[in-house]
Design goal:
The protein is of the alpha/beta class. 40% of the residues lie in helices and 22% in strands. Strands 3-2-1-4-5 form a five-stranded mixed sheet, covered by helices on one side. Helix 2 packs parallel to helix 5.
């Protein structure tokens, strides 16, 4: 169990809730990989896998990571995220300001331009 505050460390946060079998999740992954590489020193990224034990298991996640060569920090979730944010949509992306307040959120695919726009907004938020 990891506490959100331990991960956040006073920085803005992006949470991307995804599953390996989700086509739009796979489609947006390269944008998030690129953003993680470019902004990872200023913004905390949390890639939260929707682990249900049926379609999404530890084995399917490991295979997905191996095939995509994704390097972002992946955590697993067994329903708490969808409960807290009241969503079952995949992907879901949440942008959180450095002070811990919600900046923005998207249900579904996030384009590279929308992702960058939101990351820049997090960095300029006072």
């Amino acid at each position: 169990e990891i506490l959100f505050e331990e991960i956040r460390q006073g920085k803005p946060v992006v949470i991307n809730y995804f599953a390996s079998w989700c086509p739009p999740c796979k489609e947006e992954l390269p944008h998030f990989q690129k953003a993680y590489e470019s902004y990872g020193d200023k913004i905390q990224f949390i890639f939260l896998n929707a682990m249900d034990g049926q379609r999404e298991t530890k084995a399917t996640l490991e295979k997905f990571v191996e095939q995509t060569e994704f390097t972002g920090p992946i955590f697993t979730d067994e329903g708490l995220f969808s409960y807290v944010f009241q969503t079952n949509s995949l992907p879901t992306t949440v942008f959180i300001n450095a002070d811990g307040t919600l900046a923005n959120g998207y249900l579904g695919y996030v384009s590279e331009s929308v992702l960058i726009e939101n990351l820049e907004a997090l960095l300029t938020q006072e």
